[in-house]
Specification:
This protein is an alpha/beta fold. It has two domains: about 210 residues, Rossmann fold (3-Layer(aba) Sandwich), CATH 3.40.50.2000; about 170 residues, Rossmann fold. Strands 3-2-1-4-5-6-7 form a seven-stranded parallel sheet, with helices on both faces. Helix 12 runs antiparallel to helix 14. The longest helix has 24 residues. The radius of gyration is 23 Å and the shape is globular. The two termini are about 35 Å apart.
């Protein structure tokens, strides 16, 4: 149920909210949940996305060519402002006093921009624990820390980072994307929301033409759409593709860090029924997902993957295609609409079952799409925006009483 916020206080009527998003990556990089959330917030508030600063050598000594747009939507489509620190505010490490002053100036510049646009309230929105320094850099009316990963990235569960816990306790609002992370980090701040990852439902559910470069690949197509990375069980994929030469395995996405699995990846690519399509732009991904007969989430099961909430989960489901996934924590409650498999035999059986007629009826397709519709990004971001408004009302009323 979407929260509603009273607009009858003078603070609400006269308010213009500005948001400064401190993020670890560029807007035009691989799209993550923060891109979807911050972009949509810009449809309701004045929002500045602070691009990570480059080192001073990159600006002054050997300017690197601009990175290609990996998966991008123009910020103008959301009304979002990109702020690039530039050569006068580069990333420094020494001397420490200068490095800290420069970091602060980036936020000061962003805040000044929002104030000049008439913003009366500033929300400082942090997307990594290493941005904790920003809480002392400017005076924000509301601070929020959004946790969309276990940032220690260990395959084994480690104790909470004291620095991160200190940040969680200090901010006004915490948002956490998976139930497993909520169990681990959700008790340190009473103002904690659970907001899972979502989907641009209309984009993925609306039928589109099959991409020309995939039309010659034989059915059935077992498809993975996303970054090729170390968390994937590439050895399992190799076994499946070897065991099932009559199936086509199609992987669409850029290659990231594969953690020593380069040899397996090369062997996988040499199989005649395995097709690496490479990176595609964000707007192209629905067509590729819809072109699959079964969508895969073949993660290695470990403590780290139990903490994730895959961005592609609801994107897959929105297409209506059958989905098979490893038994990670965020997916196991969906066992009635998502096939779950752990070892080679279970995967072979689950994929074969996903191709069956009863998994592809109109009712089965609708059940998957209805699950995805519950996680439409617009609905989820409305909850975040409403919470920001409500918390700002609370803060204003609290200060007004003192």
């Amino acid at each position: 149920m979407k929260m509603t916020v009273s607009q009858d206080t003078s603070s609400s009527q006269n308010r213009k909210i500005g948001v400064i998003a401190l993020v670890p990556d560029n807007w035009h990089g691989i799209w993550m949940p923060r891109h979807h959330v911050v972009g949509r917030l810009a449809r309701q508030f004045e929002v500045i996305w602070v691009e990570p600063a480059k080192g001073w050598r990159d600006y002054w000594l050997s300017p690197a060519p601009a990175k290609p747009n990996i998966q991008s939507i123009s910020p103008d489509e959301f009304g979002l402002t990109l702020y690039s620190p530039g050569r006068w505010l580069p990333e420094l490490y020494r001397p420490k006093w200068l490095a800290q002053w420069i970091k602060k100036q980036r936020l000061v510049q962003a805040e000044r921009t929002l104030r000049n646009r008439g913003c009366t309230d500033i929300v400082l929105y942090l997307w990594r624990p290493e941005f904790d320094w920003s809480l002392d850099a400017i005076h924000a009316d509301l601070t929020c820390y959004h946790i969309d990963d276990e940032y220690r990235f260990s395959t084994e569960d480690l104790p909470n980072d004291p620095r991160e816990i200190a940040l969680i306790k200090r901010v006004d609002q915490v948002i956490i994307h998976s139930r497993k992370l909520l169990e681990k980090k959700g008790s340190f701040n009473s103002q904690t929301m659970h907001v899972p990852n979502g989907v641009d439902y209309s984009a993925y559910a609306t039928p589109v033409a099959e991409p020309a470069d995939i039309s010659a690949i034989p059915h059935p197509r077992m498809g993975y759409v996303g970054v090729i990375k170390s968390q994937l069980d590439l050895a399992l994929l190799r076994q499946l593709a070897t065991q099932r030469p009559e199936w086509s395995f199609v992987l669409v996405g850029p290659q990231g860090y594969v953690g020593g699995k380069e040899t397996i990846l090369e062997e996988l690519g040499n199989l005649p029924n395995v097709h690496f399509m490479g990176n595609r732009q964000l707007a192209e991904l629905p067509a590729y997902m819809q072109a699959m007969d079964v969508c895969l989430m073949c993660y290695e099961v470990c403590d780290y993957t139990h903490f994730i909430y895959p961005l592609k989960l609801n994107e897959y489901l929105a297409t209506g295609r059958p989905v098979v996934c490893s038994p990670i924590d965020s997916v196991t409650p969906l066992g009635k609409i998502v096939g779950i498999a752990e070892n080679l035999q279970e995967w072979d059986s689950a994929l074969n079952n996903a191709l069956s007629a009863d998994k592809n009826t109109a009712e089965a397709v609708s059940a998957r799409q209805q699950q995805a519709l519950l996680h439409d990004w617009d609905y989820l971001v409305d909850q975040i925006a409403d919470q920001f408004r409500r918390r700002l009302d609370m803060e204003k009323n609290h200060h007004g009483q003192h």
